[in-house]
Task: structure prediction
Amino acid sequence: MTTAAGPALVVVDVQQGFDQPVWGRRNNLECERHIAALIDHWRDSGWPVVFVRHDSSDPASPLAPGTPGNAFQDVLTGSPDLLVTKSVNSAFHGAPSLQTWLDCNGVRRIYVCGITTNHCCETTARVGGNLGYDVRFVLDATHTFDRADPAGELVAADELARVTATNLHGEFATVIDTATALRQR
Result:
């Protein structure tokens, strides 16, 4: 177990299923490189690293348990201090309880990164902020996919990421980049 007195890195849903074409065009091709740098920095600092895995309840999902897509991508190396599994968007609504683990280990600041920016990463940051944690959202260590809006118009992944950052910053989290997170000591 690492020293939990430092901030926790919460790595959300970096799973092989997100490499499948079913999701469409993604943004931020540097995401995984940034996540790897964050994991290395956290481990070198002796701080806790949390991996979150989405276990879809839809057996046809690329993220369904027992499918190759449910496995973590190779960028997630080593064993986490905590593995949370969930079937909803927020890492705070999984098992074991992320909130209980953070509180028992005296962690008040979390850094959120992973996939996807505007779904599970954003929801985890929002819930964390509502629970009183000091949340840092590492935007360039997340990625998302183009999506159709309710009228059927395509919204580009970069625009979705920008809107997520706008929604979170100053309300639920402080939005930063990887370089800023790596300066954390």
Summary: The first strand starts at residue 8 and ends at 12.
